[in-house]
Amino acid sequence: MPRPERTAAILVAAGRGLRAGSGGPKQYRSIGGKTVIFRAMEPFCRHPDVFAVQPVLNPDDTAMFNDAVSALRHEPPANGGATRQASVHAGLEALASQKPDVVLIHDAARPFVTAALISRAIDAAGRTGAAVPAIPVTDTIKLVGETGNVEATPERARLRIAQTPQAFRFDAILDAHRRAAREGRSDFTDDAALAEWAGLTVATFEGDPANMKLTTPEDFVREEARLAAQLGDIRTGTGYDVHAFGDGDHLMICGVRVPHTKGFLAHSDGDVGLHALVDAILGALADGDIGSHFPPSDPQWKGAASDRFLKYAVDRVTARGGRIANLEVTLICERPKIGPLRDTMRARIADITGLNISRIAVKATTSERLGFTGREEGIAATASATIRLPWDAKGWSD
């Protein structure tokens, strides 16, 4: 069978994940700073050989899903069923009008799927029509009876652990699901088992040991530790900014519009808090300063909102495979009073950066009426940022 030209993917995300403990459906929990479902879905959305990604959800999760994957392209979600099998069938029917040649079926609880594994799945489907990723079993397996006694020891060399994405010729797996639905069969735990029942020959291809399924709370703890260990290059940067007062009726401080008797004299919106944070992040990256990326001589930044600058700095960290661990900003002024707005500012920075608010600190102090801030001629801000990057021999992540 030649390599198919049209490959679609189904992301099965309708389960409740009860064995993963409290905290809501496991696919919407965070791991390594990103939601499980985003990690599971992004490689398919970015893959050049996948033309459509079809999510299958519990309709109660729509708002969480939209928040988690707003940056990714995908088909309108299909509503899942009471079982995984029913959910996959719903995804297949939703794709039927687009007539894919091949479909990849992946569990949202496997957030560490790679582009290389997806490519192997597509190639395997092109060769065989039905194939699953598999990895060898390293432990001895025992078949145990109802009494708890060992009944048999299967030959380990022939055993494999099946993973997803499982890959099939689209028409064949859709027909198999329709036949199972007609015959009242709803007990298949994966699509390969259903395909075998329908008479298809299912091949295997090389899986990925890192493509783990998150099932229990211990799985989350283990994988968080593994991801953290990969980000061993811990860096701290500092930033400083100051702006004088001019005419106006408000100040932008840490992304919040604060009513005041004056405004900032600045090329952009003059947000000293966000500007200091941008410099702190860029400093931790050893990546210049805010002026080198957004020169005040450039007219396109005239009056620009500083949340754009902060989002840009965060994206620079993400592009290197890193994470921001903590952001802190200290505002130095007599007025306006920052204390009542502290949590509002923290929440706004969290919204811009995508960080949990617990990783963001906003503080304020005065200069005891000394200097330009004491004379209420302007505001100054200092900031620090702690980031984690992947480590290599050069200390660089790219």
UniProtKB/TrEMBL annotation:
From the UniProt record, list the reaction(s) this protein catalyses: 4-CDP-2-C-methyl-D-erythritol 2-phosphate = 2-C-methyl-D-erythritol 2,4-cyclic diphosphate + CMP; 2-C-methyl-D-erythritol 4-phosphate + CTP + H(+) = 4-CDP-2-C-methyl-D-erythritol + diphosphate
Region annotated 2-C-methyl-D-erythritol 4-phosphate cytidylyltransferase sits at 1-234
Residues recorded as binding 4-CDP-2-C-methyl-D-erythritol 2-phosphate, renumbered to this chain, are 241-243, 267-268, 289-291, 365-368, 372, 375
UniProt site (Transition state stabilizer): 19, 26, 267, 366
Domain 2-C-methyl-D-erythritol 2,4-cyclodiphosphate synthase, by residue range, is 234-387
Residues noted as binding a divalent metal cation in the record, renumbered to the chain: 241, 243, 275
**Highest taxon above the source species:** Bacteria
Pathway(s) where this gene product acts: Isoprenoid biosynthesis; isopentenyl diphosphate biosynthesis via DXP pathway; isopentenyl diphosphate from 1-deoxy-D-xylulose 5-phosphate: step 2/6; Isoprenoid biosynthesis; isopentenyl diphosphate biosynthesis via DXP pathway; isopentenyl diphosphate from 1-deoxy-D-xylulose 5-phosphate: step 4/6
Sites marked Positions MEP for the nucleophilic attack: 156, 213
Which Pfam families does UniProt cross-reference here?
A: IspD, YgbB
Region annotation (2-C-methyl-D-erythritol 2,4-cyclodiphosphate synthase) ranges? 235-398
Question: EC number(s) per UniProt?
Answer: 2.7.7.60, 4.6.1.12
Q: Which GO terms describe its biological process?
A: isopentenyl diphosphate biosynthetic process, methylerythritol 4-phosphate pathway; terpenoid biosynthetic process
Q: Which cofactor does it need?
A: a divalent metal cation
The entry's function note states:
Bifunctional enzyme that catalyzes the formation of 4-diphosphocytidyl-2-C-methyl-D-erythritol from CTP and 2-C-methyl-D-erythritol 4-phosphate (MEP) (IspD), and catalyzes the conversion of 4-diphosphocytidyl-2-C-methyl-D-erythritol 2-phosphate (CDP-ME2P) to 2-C-methyl-D-erythritol 2,4-cyclodiphosphate (ME-CPP) with a corresponding release of cytidine 5-monophosphate (CMP) (IspF).
PANTHER family, alphabetized:
2-C-METHYL-D-ERYTHRITOL 2,4-CYCLODIPHOSPHATE SYNTHASE, CHLOROPLASTIC
The record's family statement is:
In the N-terminal section; belongs to the IspD/TarI cytidylyltransferase family. IspD subfamily. In the C-terminal section; belongs to the IspF family.
Q: What is this protein called?
A: Bifunctional enzyme IspD/IspF
Q: What is the lineage of its organism?
A: Bacteria, Pseudomonadati, Pseudomonadota, Alphaproteobacteria, Hyphomicrobiales
